[in-house]
Amino acid sequence: MNKKSLLVSSLTGYEAEIGRWLWCLEDVRRTLITELTGMSQSLLDRKIGQRHSIGTLLYHIALVEADWLYVEVLGTDWDPEISSLFPLECRTESNLSHFEGESLEQHFYRLKKVREVFLTYFRSMDLNDWRKPRVLEQYEVTPEWVVYHLVEHESHHRDRFSNYLGNYGIIK
């Protein structure tokens, strides 16, 4: 019998504690990608009931990650290359903007590019900066909390994908 080892590791090249949190962020992404790989275009673009399409939520996940990086962690303007990956605003007045017509590979590319940039900025971060509050007009936030929030945010949406597929009897 092969026994699984359920352990949290630290990503190589990061301060150990930061690397563990980033490993968690990457683990959520791995399971999201695995679950969605091979999904049809019609399922990717389909609104199910009053809910958002999977494509809309993938766009939202990438945009939120980039926004937390540039606005809260770095306090800078967005890199033009990353900004160009987001032709639509994230929200209308009351809801997420519906996003369709992009292939799963295009969605995965956007997620990958944003994550590469995100991880790059954390590579040189030490624990002091990791826990140093960024003071914004409405709140203070640390990079540590941002990563925690992004783990929670992406895992929440990953679970929604599972519900879409399971509750509606849809097979990829």
Distance between the termini: 30 Å
Shape: globular
Q: What spatial order of strands do you see in the largest sheet?
A: 1-2
Write down the overall mean pLDDT: 89
SSE ordering: HHHHHHEEH
Helix fraction, binned, reads 55-70%
User: What is the total tally of β strands?
Assistant: 2
Description:
The chain is mainly α and 172 residues long. Helix content is 58%, strand content 2%. It has seven helices and two strands. A two-stranded antiparallel sheet has the order 1-2. Strand 1 (134-135) and strand 2 (140-141) form a beta hairpin. Helix 1 (16-36) packs antiparallel against helix 5 (104-123) and helix 1 (16-36) packs parallel to helix 7. The model has no long low-confidence stretch (mean pLDDT 89).
Label this structure with key terms.
globular; two-stranded antiparallel ribbon; 172 residues; mainly alpha
